[in-house]
Design a protein that fits this description.
Length: about 350
């Protein structure tokens, strides 16, 4: 049994190293050994990742980035401090996790952004939980996504003079700065790997960038306040327009908006289920995820599932039979049976869970 002095010493050590296993017996050299298929959930307020065993649907580990985001972090170096992590992506080879850290609570919108605020990009080893990279960005960002070949990390700069930064994934040397629209948020990659798509929140547009030479190919007008262009295997990108309460459908080959889906509610996130040809759309501030089905060329409301308060990010299992959904308000992840439309399990994770990614 560890005595109180040992507990205190190890707690301070975990805070200083920033990313360690969340038990009182761990040291930085111990690491984890996550070899099972897992979901990694970003807990914005808890400033951590929850690791879910997909076979058992239970939380097995918690990887901490430091003190909770809402707490006083006086004494921490500003160029190392991690607060309010947001979205997470897996590298194509499965060896790295990329986490965007805007430094503010994005579940409350961008109203709290102040001049001079910085963002950062974290790279985490998904097997050991070790923090390999903690790169500060010039201003706040939204996410950090890997290029299709895994050699680069792309992140937005969420200000009026919007930019996308492209870093070398190994050295974090800045390779390219790309000018886009105003207040760019999510940067995503098309399923075919040809383009990066950037949602420009304040410009009501989406910028398509050719990955190979990083040239802006086209800027597409979409609905009001787009937050992300979410990729799908059917060669489409689905853009959730918050104020417009619509989804813009972009054809990747022609780079045109081929459809606009009118919702009647504010969409938080969109995920495409290829097996069932369905769109699952979470509704901002609720416990409801709407299910849309394409019929004779039109997307129509078909059904819905109930998760928990603040339903947000949606990811399907590789066989499309199970959906994992983060619930920001409840601090949980709902596991849903896609065909039966019911909840298999609800797991408690950290406070204000945002993005999640699955690794098999």
């Amino acid at each position: 049994m560890l005595n109180l002095r040992t507990h205190i010493a190890l707690g301070l050590l975990a805070l200083l190293v920033g990313c360690t296993k969340s038990t009182d017996s761990v040291t930085p050299s111990d690491g984890l050994n996550i070899t099972y298929p897992a979901a990694y959930v970003v807990n914005a307020e808890s400033n951590s990742l929850s690791v879910i065993d997909l076979a058992k649907n239970e939380v097995r580990e918690t990887i901490s980035f430091g003190a909770p985001s809402s707490s006083d972090q006086t004494g921490m170096k500003m160029n190392d401090m991690v607060m309010w992590p947001n979205h997470i992506y897996l590298s194509p080879d499965g060896s790295k996790l990329g986490v965007g850290v805007p430094g503010i609570d994005l579940s409350q919108g961008l109203s709290g952004v102040l001049a001079g605020m910085k963002g950062r990009v974290l790279v985490v080893n998904p097997k050991t939980g070790e923090l390999a990279t903690n790169q500060q960005t010039p201003v706040i960002n939204h996410n950090a996504v890997f290029s299709p070949d895994g050699t680069e990390i792309w992140t937005s700069q969420t200000i009026d003079a919007g930019k996308v930064l492209v870093y070398d994934a190994s050295t974090m040397a800045l390779k390219k700065t790309i000018e886009v629209g105003m207040e760019p948020t999510e940067v995503t990659m098309s399923a075919n790997g040809k383009y990066a798509f950037v949602a420009n929140r304040k410009s009501n547009s989406v910028t398509a960038i050719r990955v190979s030479d990083k040239a802006v190919v086209k800027t597409l007008a979409v609905g009001a306040t787009p937050m992300g262009a979410w990729p799908a295997s059917n060669n489409r990108m689905y853009v959730n327009n918050e104020k417009g309460q619509t989804i813009s459908v972009i054809d990747v080959e022609s780079l045109t908006v081929v459809d606009t889906i009118y919702l009647g509610f504010t969409p938080a996130y969109v995920a495409y289920n290829a097996t069932r040809n369905e769109l699952w759309v979470s509704q901002v501030g609720t416990d409801v995820v709407a299910i849309l089905e394409e019929m004779t060329g039109f997307w129509m409301y078909h059904n819905q599932v109930t998760t928990a308060l603040g339903a947000y990010a949606i990811v399907f299992s590789k066989d499309d039979k199970t959906a994992y959904i983060t619930n920001r308000g409840a601090g949980t992840v709902s596991v849903m049976n896609v065909a039966a439309r019911n909840k298999i399990k609800e797991m408690i994770v950290g406070k204000k869970p945002n993005g999640l990614v699955l690794k098999y």
